[in-house]
Specification:
Distance between the termini: 9 Å
Helix content: 55-70%
Number of domains: 1
Length: 310
C-alpha cells in the first residue's frame, strides 16, 4: 500500500469525515421521528402520519437544542475531562527537555504551533493527542513510552500524534465520542424505563412494556450505528496519521519499530475509560470475534507492514 498525494488524501478524508459527522445529528432526528411514530401509532386509536409530523415539528427544535448544548459543554470541558480520566499531568520543559526538543523540532519544521505536553505516570506504552483548538491541543505520553523508545522511535510517535492535530482528527474524534455519549444516554434511559415501568398500563389498559421496548430498541440501534460511524472514522485516520508521520520524519521504519514495541509490551492498556482510550495510538479493547468491525484502530501488524513498504 503506497501513500501518494497526501494532500489529495487529506482532502478526501476530510470530506468523508465531514459527511460522517453530519450524519450524527441526522441520525438523532431520524430516531426521534421513529420514537414519535411508535408512540403515536401505539397510544392512539386513530393514529395518522399528520399527527406524527406535527409532534416531530414541535419536538425537533428541543432535540437540536440539546445537541447544541452538549457540544458547548464538550467544547469547553473536554480537555479537563480527558485529563482527569487518564490521570495525566502537565510535563514541564525542565522535567524532560528531550520530549520538548523532539516536539518543537517537528512543529517548527512543519509550521505548527507547539502543543501542550502531558504525561501519564504509567508503565504502558501509549500516547494520544487531544484538544479542539490551538489553545487546547495536547500531546500526552505515558512514562513507559518515554522510557522505552529511543529518540527516533519517539519522534515517530510524536509525529503521529501531531498529524492527528494537523489533520484535525482530534476535533473530529472528540465530537464523535460526544455523539456516541448521547446515544449511550438514550439507550440507558430506554432500558431503565422498560425495567422500572414495564408492568404499568396506559389509560386504555394497554401494557407500556411494548412501547418502552420499542423506544429502547430504537435507542440501541442509534447507539450501534453511531459507534460504527466513529470506528470507520478512527480506522481511516490511523492509517493516514501513520503516513503523515512518515512524511514528517522521513523515517517510516522508526514509527514501525515503535509500533512493534508497543504491540509487544504487556502493559499496553492504560486504565482509562474506553471512550477516552480510543484516542490512544494503539487501542486493544476489541480482540474478540468481529474485531475488524468493532476495532477503533486497524491491526497494528498491518500498520507496521505498510510503514515498512515506504
Amino acid at each position: 500500500m503506497r501513500y501518494i498525494g497526501l494532500l489529495a488524501q487529506q482532502r478526501q478524508n476530510n470530506i468523508r469525515s465531514l459527511v460522517l459527522v453530519i450524519l450524527f445529528p441526522i441520525l438523532v432526528l431520524a430516531l426521534c421521528y421513529s420514537a414519535i411514530y411508535a408512540m403515536v401509532f401505539y397510544a392512539n386509536e386513530n393514529p395518522s402520519h399528520e399527527m406524527v409530523l406535527h409532534a416531530f415539528v414541535h419536538i425537533a427544535p428541543f432535540v437540536i437544542a440539546v445537541i447544541a448544548v452538549w457540544f458547548l459543554i464538550a467544547y469547553f470541558s473536554n480537555t479537563l475531562l480527558i485529563k482527569r480520566a487518564t490521570q495525566a499531568r502537565s510535563l514541564t520543559r525542565k522535567e524532560n527537555m528531550r520530549i520538548y526538543n523532539i516536539t518543537e523540532n517537528l512543529c517548527m519544521s512543519h509550521g505548527m504551533p507547539m502543543p501542550k505536553i502531558n504525561i501519564i505516570e504509567d508503565p504502558a506504552l501509549n500516547a494520544f493527542a487531544s484538544g479542539l483548538n490551538k489553545n487546547t491541543y495536547t500531546v500526552t505520553l505515558t512514562r513507559g513510552i518515554i522510557n522505552t523508545l529511543n529518540d527516533q522511535e519517539l519522534e515517530g510517535v510524536i509525529a503521529h500524534e501531531l498529524s492527528h492535530i494537523r489533520n484535525r482528527d482530534v476535533r473530529l474524534l472528540i465530537i464523535s465520542i460526544v455523539f456516541v455519549g448521547i446515544f449511550a444516554m438514550i439507550a440507558q434511559i430506554g432500558f431503565r424505563m422498560a425495567l422500572f415501568n414495564g408492568g404499568g398500563r396506559n389509560k386504555d389498559g394497554k401494557s407500556n412494556l411494548v412501547l418502552l421496548v420499542i423506544i429502547a430498541v430504537i435507542a440501541i440501534i442509534g447507539y450501534f450505528l453511531s459507534i460504527l460511524m466513529r470506528f470507520a472514522i478512527s480506522r481511516k485516520r490511523e492509517y493516514f496519521a501513520d503516513a503523515s508521520a512518515a512524511e514528517m520524519t522521513k523515517n517510516p521504519r522508526a514509527l514501525a519499530s515503535a509500533l512493534r514495541k508497543i504491540s509487544g509490551n504487556p502493559n499496553l492498556a492504560h486504565e482509562a475509560p474506553d471512550s477516552v482510550s480510543q484516542l490512544f495510538i494503539e487501542h486493544a479493547a476489541h480482540k474478540a470475534a468481529f474485531s475488524s468491525l468493532f476495532a477503533t484502530h486497524p491491526p497494528i501488524q498491518k500498520r507496521i507492514e505498510i510503514l515498512e513498504q515506504f
